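Chain A, query sequence.
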Amino acid sequence: MRTRRVILELLMLLAAILFVLPVVMIFIASFKRDADIIRFLGFLPKRLTAEDYRWTLDNFRHIFENPEEVPVFRWLFNSTIISTATTILVLAVDSLAAYALSRLKLPGGKVVFALIVATLRVPGQILLVPVYLILNRLGWIDSPLALIIPPASAAFGVFLLHQFFKGIPKELEEAAELDGCSKLQTYWHVMLPLSRPALATLGILTFVGSWNDFLGPLVFLDSVEKYTLPVGVGLFQGSYASEYGLTLAASVVCTAPMLIAFLLLQRHIIEGISMAGLKE
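Chain A, predicted structure.
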């Protein structure tokens, strides 16, 4: 039994290393010069000539000291605003929908919930054309609204919160109704406080997904100053030349906030997913 546990832990450690290694390589390579990156003389930066140094901050210096050429702070601001607004909207809409479908016994509620879950099987790329046409008709192309409003209809959040609400004892709702609470007051004062782990999980996953979204901003935004960080990083990759050092440095700037957020909030992610197991 002990041998099996040791083997499983070693396998988990190996899997963790495989997942973390690319991120570590990006971070280290961002301190290299392009010649060192292309040749790949080793995992750590090498000293190519007698005049230079092994480690260099030139890539980060170029990004932060040239806001006209590389508006990284503007992209960072755009990503923060869009991801925050998207997360708030998703939590509000999905929690209301999940509460209605799981607790209010609506006519045809099970059918509606089944249809919502069925949309999880539809690839998001298929919806790009109809969503673009709708946004164009609304005049939201090249606007942050094009990236904030559509994700509110995502089915995953409704499914996650629906399963969590189903696990909350009905006696708590009945006690709230005896105290004179309306359905909306019960949702606000009883269901939401008890659902903090699931809400935290959904909020984190939504924020990370919006932050890392590349296809949406690329399709719906036209102005460079309105780009988010992932699309801005892609500008360093041209058809005939690629600035590898700048790309990796910008990737570190793009990835660092999410890594910090995950390390700080990983307990809520694990707790929320484990408590939102499938229930009838």
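Residues 74-233+246-275 form a domain with the MetI-like fold fold (CATH 1.10.3720.10). The chain has a mean pLDDT of 83.
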